[in-house]
Amino acid sequence: MTNNRPHILHIITDQQSADALSCAGNSWVSTPNMDALAARGIRFERAYSPHPLCVPARASMLTGLPSVLTEKRISTTERRSWTDKEIQAGSIGWTLKQAGYDVPYIGKWHVADIGDPPDHGFRCYNGDAGYYCGQADVVLAGARQFFTERDAEKPFYMTASLIQPHGICYWGRYMPPNSWQPQSTPWPEGDDPWDKKYTGDGYPFPVPEKTLPKFIEEHCPPLPENFEIAADEPEILQSYRDVDELGFVFPKTGGASRGLSEEQCWRLYRWTYYRLCEQLDKQIGDLLALLDEYHLGGNTIILFTSDHGEALGAHQLRFKNELYEEPARVPFFLIDPDHIPKNAVNAQAIVNQGLDIFPTICDYAQIDIPKFCTGSSLRPFIHGTPPYWRDHTVVECRVGRAVIGGRWKYCSYTNSPKHPEQLFDLEHDPYEQKNRAKDPAYADILAQQRQYLSDWLQSIGNPDLPWH
């Protein structure tokens, strides 16, 4: 390893749920390359996105800060962009660069109000594709260029940010040819959702057989166990289902259902998502093969994760930005070639991926972890169990926050006057189907969870931020 410091490869996928892996026991998807990567290190089963939405989740990975701080709010309705001074004082890119690391960035950026890769000290290797392209050919070409040109005397911290399976966001949207913007109008009569003339980062989508009802019955995943909507669910979540501007393929939104039932549409949606995950798996295999081609696989720390998950029909929701497990929980692997706990799976540690990545990278790079980081290094898990690890963490979203611990999960949503809270016993109710928040038998637990959230909000009220 260069100068006794390791190379570090940070692989980010987009919208991949924690269970969208065959090594997680999912028989509806085959991910041999990601499975093999996980087997080389530790796979954390309870890793959570700090905010299950692309922009805030990625901002947290860059800064080690929760999104309530990265958004830099002026008021409840306005926020301001970061200044150059603030970025340079609190970015993982500048932190590694100033410590002597080469810091290439390849693939999707997608962070608002916080600058572009060069503002963070990164050298971008996307060619002419721009900062927001995470297509596999761009990422692989950029990685090859960097490996060919790099200074062999310097360690590197490379981010490789791939777009899939984010393409599911575009499945079933009516998007006119050569447009990236979905339209509110229904699908043109006679057109096919899989027609290659439509655009989006998922195209061309995997195409099922034309005899769709039979294909769905024989090949598509069933509805999730938690498909039904609870009567006491926070009202704000229903508004996510009512949005119709996507021109979605489901019949209840006036899309191109082609005579399919709602259940059949959901099952086809789930099938398509898993095929995108399999496309991603091949891309991961190609990237790792490239690392080995340049003889770097044996001396590179690898962090593998996704920015957030995908609801995939749970509670009849799709996409992200809710606090349920499906959009909030993400895959997370840590691979250290010098210390290989074969096929290790940690099912207990509560990992806040966006907050713990910055300290983990600093730890491996032999850099002091900045005081403003609210997360912790995961490196001690490679050598065993740390003497202390958090028993809960906080996940944010646009309309609420969740306290997630070993057994209990508490969600507090705004704009839901009738049902503002949820309390789930994840040990006995992993699919979050029974809300205990209004059950008197759980009043003490509810009070404890409320206090955890209050304490967290107070703790970040006056943080030791890098620009102070």
General description of the model:
It is a single chain. By secondary structure, the chain is α/β, with parallel strands linked by helices. The chain has 2 domains: 2-166 and 273-391, 3-Layer(aba) Sandwich (Alkaline Phosphatase, subunit A); 396-459, Arylsulfatase, C-terminal domain, CATH 3.30.1120. The chain is 28% helix and 14% strand. It is built from 12 helices and 15 strands. The chain has helices at 32-39, 54-63, 67-70, 84-90, 92-98, 136-149, 212-219, 235-242, 262-293, 325-328, 353-364, 443-459; strands spanning 7-13, 42-44, 47-48, 104-107, 123-124, 157-161, 300-306, 329-330, 332-335, 344-346, 351-352, 392-397, 400-405, 408-413, 421-425. The protein has an 8-stranded mixed β-sheet, with helices on both faces. A hairpin with a 7-residue loop joins strand 14 and strand 15. The protein is globular. It starts with 6 loop residues before the first strand and ends in a 9-residue tail after the last helix.
Features:
single chain; about 475 residues; alpha/beta; Alkaline Phosphatase, subunit A; Arylsulfatase, C-terminal domain; 2 domains; 8-stranded mixed β-sheet; 4-stranded antiparallel β-sheet; 12 helices
* CATH architecture level-2 label of the largest domain: 3-Layer(aba) Sandwich
| CATH superfamily annotation of the largest domain | Alkaline Phosphatase, subunit A
Helix content: 25-40%
Using only C-alpha atoms, the radius of gyration works out to 22 Å
What is the residue-mean pLDDT, rounded to a whole number?
88
Shape: globular
Low-confidence stretches: 244-248
Classified by CATH, the class of the largest domain is Alpha Beta
* Structural category: alpha/beta
Element-level helix/strand string: EHEEHHHHEEHEHHHEHEEEEHEEEEH
N/C terminus separation: 35 Å
What is the number of helical segments per DSSP (H or I, 4+ residues)?
12
Largest beta sheet: strand ordering? 5-4-6-1-7-9-2-10
- What is the domain total for the residues? 2
Number of strands: 15
Percentage beta strand: 5-15%
Largest sheet: 8 strands, mixed
Question: What name does CATH use for the topology of the largest domain?
Answer: Alkaline Phosphatase, subunit A
